[in-house]
Structure formats: structure tokens, C-alpha cells
Amino acid sequence: MLTYEQIFDVLDGCATKEILTQHRNLLSVSSEYKTYFEDLEAIHLNLLALPIEKPSVQFTENILANIAYAQVKKNSWSSQLTWIFFTIMLVFFVGTISLALFYFSNSNSVIEIPKVKNMGVINTFHIEILVKVLILGNLIVLLAIFDKKILKPYFLNKKIRLS
Amino acid sequence: MNDNQQDINILNRIRTGDKAAFKELINRHKDYAFTVAYRILNNREDAEEVAQDAFMQVFRALYSFNADSKFTTWFYRIVFNAALMQKRKNKVMLIDFETSSEAFQVSHSSDSAVDLQKNERKNAIQKALQNLSADDTAMITLFYLKELSLEEIAEITKISAKTAKVKIHRARKRLAEEMKKMLNEEVQSLL
Q1: What value, to the nearest 5°, has the Cα angle with vertex A49 and ends B162 and B54?
Q2: pTM of the predicted model, to two decimals?
């Protein structure tokens, strides 16, 4: 007797030649096997003939209405809060830099870095190098954020459109 | 142009803001999406909600869809996962067999004895399917619905093709056992 897996392989049309031969022999010899096979075959054929269900008449309209609502919701100002925040921060940043550049270019005063008393290690430390390292670090972080938030979504979008 | 290329074309049109294209996409796949959800959930209202949510998810995730893969595989995965999640939420299985068999009989009413017998058998299959676990029903539905390949079913259910094959075989065996059990109960009730 074949296993149910082998019988389903026969029904699905993916059984090996050996199993097919065995199956044909069993069909002609064993009435028990024949009944078992016919039961499984009937289920297989009925499953193939199962009807496709139909959703309600308003199905498509409901989705389209939901999408229209979702778009209106998305366009509300509260969802743009992140961008509003970034824009304000950018304006302040540019304003501060512009003011600093304007005043420093017109000023004769020299800014002296205060020296810490009895702390030779700190006073001899190369502050300029530290500042450069910190600026570089900030730039790397800024570039990483720019890449993640703006460049990556932009090129991903472009790739999908092209494809 | 094959079905998948047509789907990709429709998706590209949706991305350019063509609203009619989304309607076209819904109409192309709504019956199959609803059938998958309905077979898993056994409830028309839940199935409709799940299928609608799946289309909403497609709309929201349009840009994350990889155009190299098959749309239906991606879409059925969304429907399958959403239906299973809904099933877990429901916990108590709602049997809506009366409504479905009624609808079925209306659309397939026939006078001949052979057809009546066929209808009875189909109804019995549908009832037996509802008694199986969600996983078994899903495997059978996916396998028979659009004659998806084992590889596609494996991708939808996130298992290997070999495991998918074993699961489908087992699900069908359980269905056969369920049918036998139902038949025995029917005979006993007649006696």
C-alpha cells in the first residue's frame, strides 16, 4: 500500500515512475487501496472545484474611501511637525552662523582661551586639534543623518520608479 | 504580457498618482484575497475587513515593494499574515457556515440528482475545511486557489518548499479524516 504522501504525489502529477507503476498495480489488485485512493481523489477534485468567494459590492469603494481619508489625515499639519521643527532649527542655525561671520569679520578683539591654574596637562593640551576632531565627528554624524533621512529614501524611490 | 508584468505596470501607474489604477488592482485581486481570508477566518465580515486592510497596506507600502519579485506572492503574504493575526485575535472561532452554504447553493442551484450530490459533497468539504486549524486551511487554500507553486507558497508562508509540501499533504490527510468523521456522525444520527 502506498502512503498518503505518495498518493497525493500521484494526484498532483509529481510521482516518480516507480510509484506510478506501484499505484497501477495496487489499483488492479487491492480493492481496499482502490477505495482509499478514490476517497482522496474525490477530495482532491472537490478542492480543485471549490468556488472563489465574492466580497461585498462595496468592497472596492470602501478601500478607495479609506485611502482618500488616510491621505487627508496624512496631509494635516500635525504630521508635518517634524519637518516644521527641522526648518525652524535650520533657520536659527543659518542665522547664527551668518551673525557670527558678520561680527567676527568686523571685530578686532581677540578671544583668549582661559588657562586653568595648577593644571599644566590641560594648558599644554592641543585645544586646536581637539576642536578639529570634534568638528570632524559632528560632520560625520551630520552626513550619516543626511544619508539616512534624505539620500537613501530618495535613491530608493528613484530605483523603484526606474524599474 | 504576463499577469505579473501587468501588476507591475499597474503599480507603476499608482506611483505616478493614477487613482483608477488602484481601483484596477483591487478589482483584479479582490476575489482571491477575500477567498484566502474567508477560508482562514470562516467569517465574511472579518474576511472582508482583512482583505481591505491588506489592500491598504499595499497602498502604504508601494515604494517598499521590490519590482523583481512577484506581486501576488507579496500580496498573498500580506493577506495570509493579516488573516492569521485576526484569527489569533478572535480566538473563538465563529462559524458562519450557514451563510456561506446558502450563498453557494443559490449560485449553484440545480435540479439534477447528480448535481445535488456534488453540491452536498462540496458543502461537506467546506464544512470540513472550517473544522481544520487555520494553518491547515491556509495551506490547502493557497495550494488549490490559484495553483500556486510550492516555492510561491513557501515564500508566502515563510517556510521551505519541502516543509510546505509536507504541510499540504498533512492538511489534506486531516481533511480526509475530518470528512470521514463527519460522514460517520451523519450516519449515526440517521440510525
Answers
A1: 65
A2: 0.64
